[in-house]
Inverse folding.
């Protein structure tokens, strides 16, 4: 019983600590340099945003020059997108994040296979998909899911 109470106390303390905002002075000097544009408003940021920015700074600090250049290019491409497109992409990303891990892994694998296709074949598939109506797309996705389920059952 004492062990259970101790575990509960540790879990509660950990959860409370994770919800607490961090102070600017708690960041390493390197993190502060990467996040310098946020210094004046750091204490007003929600804790979840602070953690996300800190994780991003840590990733940035682990990158080599080529990776940083690539990240800058991707960020510029993102900034060049119309706001409405960025909103749709954020919503799509959130829907992906809400999926179970197995489904996320399956989608990542499907995307990896798609990217490895011959570019001509990939573009043909993209055009074919874009020419379909919303109902045709839904029907096609249903059929693909059914085939995938059937293959999994056959593999058992």
């Amino acid at each position: 019983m004492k062990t259970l109470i101790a575990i509960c106390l540790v879990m509660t303390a950990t959860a409370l600590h994770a919800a607490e905002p961090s102070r600017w002075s708690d960041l390493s000097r390197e993190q502060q340099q990467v996040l310098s544009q946020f210094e004046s408003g750091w204490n007003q940021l929600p804790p979840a945003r602070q953690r996300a920015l800190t994780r991003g700074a840590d990733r940035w600090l682990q990158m080599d020059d080529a990776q940083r250049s690539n990240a800058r290019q991707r960020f510029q491409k993102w900034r060049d997108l119309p706001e409405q497109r960025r909103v749709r992409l954020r919503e799509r990303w959130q829907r992906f994040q809400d999926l179970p891990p197995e489904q996320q892994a399956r989608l990542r694998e499907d995307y990896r296979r798609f990217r490895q296709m011959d570019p001509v074949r990939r573009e043909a598939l993209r055009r074919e998909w874009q020419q379909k109506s919303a109902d045709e797309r839904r029907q096609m996705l249903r059929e693909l899911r059914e085939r995938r389920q059937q293959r999994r059952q056959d593999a058992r």
Summary: Helices lie at 2-19, 29-34, 47-62, 65-80, 83-97, 101-116, 119-131, 134-155. The radius of gyration is 22 Å. The mean pLDDT is 86.
